[in-house]
Amino acid sequence: MQVYLPIAELSVDAFLLLGLGGIIGFLSGLFGVGGGFLMTPMLIFIGVPPVVAVATQANNVIASSVSGVFAHWRRGNVDFKMGWVLLGGGFAGSTVGVGLFSLLRSLGQIDLVINLCYVIFLGTIGALMMIEGTRAMMRRRRKAAPRKLHQHSWIHGLPLKTRFRKSRLYISALVPLAIGFGVGVLSAIMGVGGGFILVPAMIYLLGMPTAMVIGTSLFQIIFVAANVTFLQAAQNQTVDVVLAMLLLVGSVVGAQIGTRIGSRLQGDWLRLLLGILVVAVCSKLFVDLFTPPVDIYSLGVPL
């Protein structure tokens, strides 16, 4: 059944979009990630323009993050003070990122920048996850003690120190502000919540307890993704509501199935498998960068 996407100016099989949403939702539930960094490349693979894929995907990020925050809040695993500081940087970063998005689009370079960002960040994060997952499995087999995740460094000597009682931290507020700003810029350009970068940064740079990280990250992502969606719709008119709704329906169903299966697998294996998946998507994007298009030139015909 073909459905027309008005903003993407493309006709796509509705069941393909529902299935794609279901697959990404399944992977999100299986691996415990938002899935935005997988959904956007997949939309590009089926022909959705990158500018529309990036802007529309933010809607799915909001929906999944809201449900996740409520679950973690009920368990007491959300540091709202840290979340508000991250959010301050995230709002500023996402606003700057949408402005940069508009500038690159006017220059005709936004598609290239989106693909390059995915190749660089997905390749790096995927490789690190594969390495960390492999090391964790090897340590478990040798029954070695896990290495310390967080050590004091020059970051803890920065000014404007603030006490985050929920996370048992006393650090400079400049660090989470800077992290939030960087993730906000990436959210606007890549169409992701930024959790695949924010979560490791909160663990390794801020030293937050792992139990607090995911809920606090999702709290910040809700508002940053909402800001990105609003600005993209207002400034660039690239949010396709029809596409967003079809993907959302599939994602909700797939996430429920993935969550049940993921609870039966070991964390080390999940990390390794997710790393392999991320590297595979990155490799496809990398190959596409050097593959000549079928039509070298295209002509726009005014209506």
TrEMBL record:
InterPro entries: TM_pro_TauE-like, TSUP/Inactive_protease-like. It holds the Pfam family TauE. It is found in: Cell membrane; Membrane. It is a multi-pass membrane protein. GO terms for cellular component: plasma membrane. The chain crosses the membrane at residues 12-38, 83-104, 110-131, 169-197, 203-226, 269-287. It comes from the Bacteria. Keywords: Cell membrane, Membrane, Transmembrane, Transmembrane helix. Belongs to the 4-toluene sulfonate uptake permease (TSUP) (TC 2.A.102) family. This is Probable membrane transporter protein. It comes from Denitrobaculum tricleocarpae. The lineage of its organism: Bacteria, Pseudomonadati, Pseudomonadota, Alphaproteobacteria, Rhodospirillales.
